[in-house]
Amino acid sequence: MAELTAVLASTHHPFYYKATTSPPDERPPYAGDWQRKVEAYRETLIAADPDILVMVGADHFHQLWLDNYPQFLIGQAEQYDATFYNEEREFGIPKFLLQGDVDFSRYMHQELMNQEFDLAVSHELKIDHSIICPIITVRPEADLPVVPIYTNIFVPPLPSPKRFYELGRAIRRVIDSYPTEKKVVAIGTGHLSLELGGPRQFGEHGPDPLFDADAIEWLSTGNAEAILANVTHESMSGVGNATHGFMDLLLMMGIAGEGEHADYVDQLDLFHTREMYITWYPYKNQKQAEAATAAAEVSDASTGPIYANDAVWDQFREEKQESEQGTGADALSAVGEGSER
Length: 341
What we know:
Elements: E1 3-11, H1 16-21, H2 31-46, E2 52-57, E3 72-75, E4 79-82, H3 85-91, E5 96-99, H4 102-114, E6 120-122, H5 129-138, E7 146-151, H6 161-177, E8 183-190, H7 209-220, H8 224-230, H9 233-239, H10 246-256, E9 264-270, E10 273-280, H11 286-299, H12 314-340
Helix pairs in contact: 2-11, 4-6, 6-10
């Protein structure tokens, strides 16, 4: 049977390629740290020695639109063209041609249907940056066949967080049962708190760093119960209008397994968003453990969970407390002024 050698869950930021390949005098000041962390993260995939990549993402209204947007879709093609014109124009992302694995796609499709996940299928799927970004960051050679799975994180009514998690568990069962000797790695991207086109888009940090703290702890400890108890469509909208991509990260945690602690966890406070890079090794061997340790030393990452009560989040707790105190003081002042009148 297939061996799932790693599960990778990360954010995807389409500006990474441009930020790190521009001439030195045109790079943003954070490009060096960003590149250092991504290249360290890449080593965790190399240590998994994959033959096939199962890749989870979401179409950003490139090929799918409001009139035809499946809840879940699987590609079933020999090859996948990748990168749309606006992604080239705005982000400098190059075109790619990814090889498919039709046999595995067909098996995945049928077995998921057998588990009551009725995925749509596309024989002409074109890939956008939700899948190309992790190709660029962790497998820039783009030399492995892929099985792409798209989810709906944009067009209401959305599937529930529980449905995303259960799909992840189902994908894991399919991978484990696939009759092959090949090694499989599952890679998926999504978001922590994220605002696009709204008033919180260009803040100094992501729109809700304390949600990010909780999210990273929940994911890196495999705490599905906490996520399903605390995360709803409404709560995600409250911390950023594009935060629903977090459900794809939850799906990846489902593939890794409930209660499974991550073997590599890193994050980067990047201007208006927070980047996150997590790897689980389901059957961790010495080579993988050593790769994670070496990568963590380079990137200042962790070889285990990052918790919401870690000191790295103290600044944001203090800022929230000061903001709440200020709001309370303003309210009392307003009441006082009303009484004087």
